[in-house]
Structure formats: C-alpha cells, structure tokens
Write a structure and sequence with these properties.
This protein is an all-alpha fold. It contains six helices and no strands. The protein has one domain. The termini are far apart.
Length: 117
Amino acid sequence: MNQETTGSVPEPIDNAMRGQPNPCVAWGIELGLRKGILHGLQKGLQQGIQKGLQRGARQGAAAVVLRLLSKRIGPLPVGMQRLVHGLDLPRLEALGEALLDFTSHEQVRRWLESDAG
C-alpha cells in the first residue's frame, strides 16, 4: 500500500509537523554550526597573532630607540620614555633616524611634541 491510499503523511513531514526535526536537517544544521565556529576561531586566532606581532615589533622598536637615545644623550626622564613607548611604528622609525642629530633632551622633547616628528 502506498501513502496515498492509506492517507498517511510521509515520515519526514509527519515528524516536522510534530516538531521533530528531520535527522538529515538536524545533521546539516549541526555541521554548518561546527564549520562556522571553526572558521570564527581560525579568523580570531589569525587576528590575534597579527596584533601580537605588530605590538611586539612596536615594543622592540621603542626599546631600541630608547637605548640609542640613552647612549647618545643620556637616559630620558620617565615621562619622555612613556611618550616614546606610545608612538606607532612609523613614528618610532622616524625618531630612530632623527635621534642621530639630537644633542639634548630638549631636542627630543620638541620632536615628540611636534606634529611633523
């Protein structure tokens, strides 16, 4: 006997009408969720690594610039050291070049305060 002659509904439709999901649909949803979560984790990990590398490069550059300034004109006051640590990488590189011409803390202070520095 087929379903038309008995008046019964196909099992997947009957289950859906009763609120019971089709196992294939449930499996597809679960697979999609797992793939989405995995993709999100991979993307987050990549972004975290990238930010960590950028931060490490900036901190390393700041440390080198401060050592060079210390050798050239003596240790900087703590407030100026904080300003150097707050610079982004392009400004640290520029300061690394400019420090070759500095002969005083005052010149460093002016450079740090300038917009063009």
